[in-house]
From TrEMBL:
It comes from the Eukaryota. GO terms for cellular component: chromosome, centromeric region; nucleus. The gene is Cenpp. GO terms for biological process: CENP-A containing chromatin assembly. Residues 6-33 form a coiled coil. This is CENPP protein. InterPro entries: CENP-P. Keywords: Coiled coil.
Length: 190
């Protein structure tokens, strides 16, 4: 009898240790992903900002111009969100490899399109030659709240194979809009 009680406690301890290990890994991943920019990019941004503020300190209308630009950008963003239905909630970028001509970045993006949530994870390979820059999306992974809709699952699989994000966003926007109409209609009849 005592061995059974000890075994139950040991099983519970092992389960808790496993949960702690998983949460620790998740925390480390989040910490690693939260670094959006490299030190070089941060320094470039600081220098550019300092140059801008030095140039603007000569003029007195700079803060009102910035406020007007910010309001204009917020208006544009609001319009685009209403038009497309997309609302991005998070984005992270991690540089995996950077050489003179080649850059590989891992992106994670999550958001909603109308009432459908989605998450994307992909690698962006950027190749730079003397005359042009070419980019390729690899390792695309899409997670969606589509329920048991097999057609959506087939579509997501095809998009993942081809790595075509433009097609995904176009089709998701249309599908999510009609999904929202159907959902409202069925709620009306309940």
């Amino acid at each position: 009898m005592d061995n059974n009680i000890y075994q139950v406690y040991e099983d519970e301890i092992q389960a808790l240790e496993e949960e702690i290990r998983l949460l620790t890994e998740k925390y480390e991943d989040i910490q690693q992903e939260s670094t959006f920019f490299s030190e070089e990019e941060i320094l470039k941004s600081i220098k550019a900002f300092q140059r801008e503020t030095e140039g603007e300190s000569k003029g007195h209308d700079s803060s009102s111009d910035l406020k007007a630009q910010l309001e204009s950008l917020e208006t544009d963003l609001s319009f685009l969100m209403k038009l497309t239905g997309f609302q991005f909630t998070s984005h992270s970028r991690k540089t995996l490899e950077k050489t003179g001509e080649r850059t590989v970045q891992k992106h994670r993006l999550s958001g909603k399109c109308y009432s459908l949530s989605f998450q994307l994870e992909f690698q962006l390979l950027e190749m730079q030659s003397k005359e042009k820059v070419s980019t390729v999306i690899t390792d695309l992974s899409i997670i969606m709240e589509s329920g048991e809709d097999s057609e959506v699952n087939k579509f997501v699989s095809r998009v993942e194979e081809r790595g075509n994000l433009v097609t995904f966003f176009r089709c998701l926007s249309t599908y999510a809009e009609w999904y929202e109409h159907r959902r409202r209609t069925f709620l009306h009849f309940k």
